Amino acid sequence: MSFCVKCGIDCEDTINGLCLECFLNGRELMKLPHHVDLQRCTNCEEYYIRERWIPMDEADAVEETAISGISIIAEGELISVGTFADKQDDRTFQVTIQADIGVGGRITDAECKTLVRLKNTVCKKCSRQLGNYYEATLQIRSGDKGLTDELRDETVRRVRDSVELQSKTNRGLFITKVQEVRGGVDIQLSSTSLARSLTKDLIEAYGAESQESASLVGQTSDGLDMYRLTFLVRLPSYHIGDILEMNGKPHLLSGLNKTGGRLTSLNDFRDTSARKNEIQAMKILAKVSDRKDAIVLTSTGTEVQVMHPTNYSTIDLRIPQDAEIGETVQVVQIEDVLYYVP
Ligand SMILES: [Zn+2]
Ligand SMILES: [Zn+2]
């Protein structure tokens, strides 16, 4: 048992020698500064809260900012807060905060006011983006004649999706510019490591080859040489879905990776793997765009009868065991023979 040095009462616990009553008496438990500034990016409209740029509603941002200004006495613990914001003009909100604060096993309420002042600014990401900042260029090219429109759109979409996903956890990652150039497309990127990871992804997805080069672009403010990297990604002339000739027979290129790929025979639908240099040497018999839809007339477990897409004759085609046959199937004609494409 101890006692309060002020009122002399016997009590279990004391705070700084005082009983809880004497400790709380007239004491300010919570403080807020006269005003708290809230920065808003005029470009992306995100708010700077607790040292991070975050997309949010103005009302939530104002309340969060007021709450971030709270300081409570060391002996107290913030249990809950309620806020009420009163807009005074376009840029100023008076925010009242009511809080429950736990001290010495008792919950006491406290109320304070502050002004949240909205400040327009441009966040670092936007100022870089608006200033066309970039560290690296990803050049996508094709091994043969030039990048087809389909492949260009597909790879650019893949890059965009990946950057969008990665930028959710790292705001510094963005695409500065996408530019169509002769033979392909150039993508300027805010970060070298981003460009490197996109290059790796394209190598794996397309069996592409890459080459890295650096050019000196100037010096940083502290006198270091500044380089900009270029990642040249050359897509092979073949692509997933193409029909290639292996051992004199048509095969569907059904998978690709860094070192090679998988080919599926159009005769018996058996899979074979091949090394990259073997695939490179194969003749391309048909591209994805050469495929046609054929109307299914009847189907059994191992065969399907279709109407030939150009001469309308009736043709029997072999199909794989597990094929799911709908109203049409994809077919490809190689020389005079029609094949089912799995
Ligand atoms: Zn006391
Ligand atoms: Zn911004």
Give me the secondary-structure topology.
Layout: E1 2-3, E2 10-11, H1 20-24, E3 30-31, E4 35-41, E5 47-49, E6 52-54, H2 58-68, E7 71-72, E8 77-89, E9 92-103, E10 106-121, H3 124-130, E11 136-142, H4 149-167, E12 175-181, E13 184-189, H5 192-206, E14 209-219, E15 225-235, E16 243-246, E17 249-256, E18 260-265, E19 271-275, H6 276-281, E20 283-286, E21 292-299, E22 303-307, E23 314-318, E24 328-334, E25 337-340
Parallel strand pairs: 4-10, 11-15
Antiparallel strand pairs: 1-2, 3-7, 4-5, 5-6, 8-9, 9-10, 11-13, 12-13, 14-15, 16-17, 16-20, 17-18, 18-19, 21-22, 21-24, 22-23, 24-25
This protein binds zinc ion (2 copies).
The site of one zinc ion has 8 residues, from helix 1.
For the terminal residues, how far apart are their CA atoms? Answer: 85 Å
Low-pLDDT segments, ≥5 res: none
Number of domains: 4
Dominant shape: elongated
Q: Any idea what the radius of gyration is?
A: 34 Å
What binds here, in terms of ligands, is:
zinc ion
Q: How many individual β-strands?
A: 25
- Estimate the mean pLDDT confidence: 91
Helical residues, percent: 10-25%
List the strand order in the largest sheet.
6-5-4-10-9-8
Structural class by sheet pairing and helices: alpha+beta
Largest sheet geometry: 6 strands, mixed
- The number of distinct helices, counting runs of at least 4 residues, comes to 6
Strand content: over 45%
